[in-house]
Structure formats: C-alpha cells, structure tokens
Amino acid sequence: MEIIAALFMDDIELRSVPGPSTRIDLAGIQFSAPAPSPVPVTIAPHLVVLVWNPPDGKDLGALEVVFHREGDDPDGEPMARNVQPLQIEPGKFNYRLVRAELAFDEYGTVLARCRIDGGPAQVVPYTVLPPVE
Question: Which CATH architecture is the domain 2-127 placed in?
C-alpha cells in the first residue's frame, strides 16, 4: 500500500459518478490556522490520508501517524500518535481520517509523519498561529 496524499482539511465528502467511480471532494485544505485562544491551547485538526493499494499489493496493513514539533527528534517522544488498520482491496483506493489532540505551549509548527507498515514517511506540516483579534 502507498500513501498518495496526506492533507489537513475541514471537510470530506464522497460522491458517486458513472463508471462506477467515486469522487472525493475535500474542502478547506490548510497548512496553518490561528489558534482559537492564546497559548497554552489544544487543537485537533483533521488529517486525511489517501491510500492506494497496487494490483499486486497485500490487502492488510497499518497506518501510523506520529506528530512532533518541528525541530524535535522524530525518534523522541511524540505530541500524539495514531495507529489504525488498513484493509484495501488490491487495485483500489481508500482514505483514513486522523484527528489528534495537540497541546501547544507556544505557537509553531507540528509535523505529521504518515507511514504504512513502517515504510517511508510522508511529512505534512501544520502551523498554529497567534489568534486573530
């Protein structure tokens, strides 16, 4: 299985089209957001991970997403970690939603490292900015 995209977003909607085929509509793609209040603050952004299983792929796997502050050791203690099973028929696509509660004592960037079965990581940044007044 392979990660084809990972993005922070506000909303996801699936719709069928002739074929049969499916469309995934993503809304509110974001790489930063103002904090809802001054620090310390906890946020829980939504991350969507789109996965493709090649025709010769195995149909079971595990998606791991580990969140670290930018500049922290990626092998050190994470801010949050999510592991969930994947079952995708070979030759098909699917997605997983990941939502972690991330505590910030100062504004800055968190990196979500997404990988399947311990493979290479796709890194997605998310920056928390000061609140808008």
Answer: Sandwich (2.60)
